[in-house]
């Protein structure tokens, strides 16, 4: 099966600019996650969708970050305006409704590396 | 709150020698435990997972992990390391039930020398 697709692979922007990342999960996966991985740290959950609805966005900086999942399939994560500390790899993952209880748990995309200068 | 500790930033081992990457966790109840591997410019790849049952879990590429409930540990092991095993390894924990999220450790870089 096709994996989780993310684009772009790399993005360099200046602080205070806006940026958007796109994710296409594995077909049929109801749950979609966005993780932020800062250099030297483990990935941290930003937001979790179950179909169209948000399940957990407690660690999403809502003053500058937003995310949507239209029609329960693709998702977009936006940052506006970006700060230097937003430099990180943004990982998208998807899973069945079994979540981490399912066979392989999550399937991760390759990520988008964002550099804010 | 859930948490995962990976006490070693880096583990060095010679090819052919056994390797251990340490992980301890803190979570209420009985968790799911995972190991993922990350190669440069790649996403996280699933290695293995503990759900229940046998405390020794076997996974991909010859890796295995031992679940120790009393020590709240889930150390990753491999009997004979390969140079190609050099990568960044993450331990993660998830509670059971509900809309689970993965909580990751800070990662351990494994360097296998020829």
| Outline of chain A | globular
Rg of chain B is 14 Å
Beta-strand percent range of chain A: over 45%
List SSEs of chain B in N-to-C order: EEEEEEEEEEEE
Note poorly predicted spans of chain B: none
| Molecular shape of chain B | globular
Helix fraction bin of chain B: under 10%
Q: What portion of residues of chain A is helical?
A: under 10%
Number of strands of chain A: 11
Radius of gyration of chain A: 13 Å
Q: How do the strands and helices of this protein lay out in sequence?
A:
The complex is a heterodimer of chains A (117) and B (114).
Chain A: E1 5-7, E2 10-13, E3 19-24, E4 31-37, E5 44-50, E6 53-56, E7 65-69, E8 75-79, E9 88-95, E10 107-108, E11 112-116
Parallel strand pairs in A: 2-11
Antiparallel strand pairs in A: 1-3, 3-8, 4-5, 4-9, 5-6, 7-8, 9-10, 9-11
Chain B: E1 3-5, E2 10-14, E3 19-21, E4 24-26, E5 32-38, E6 44-50, E7 56-58, E8 64-68, E9 73-78, E10 87-94, E11 103-104, E12 108-113
Explain this structure.
The complex is a heterodimer of chains A (117) and B (114). In chain A, 0% of the residues lie in helices and 48% in strands. With 117 residues, chain A is mainly β. Chain A starts with a strand and ends with a strand. With 114 residues, chain B is an all-beta fold. Chain B is built from no helices and twelve strands. In chain B, strands 2, 5, 6, 10, 11 and 12 form a six-stranded mixed beta sheet that branches. Chain B starts with a strand and ends with a strand. The A-B interface holds A 4, 9, 31, 33, 40-45, 48, 50, 55-56, 91, 93, 99-101, 104-111, 113 and B 4, 32, 34, 36, 41-46, 49, 51, 90, 92, 94, 96-97, 99-107.
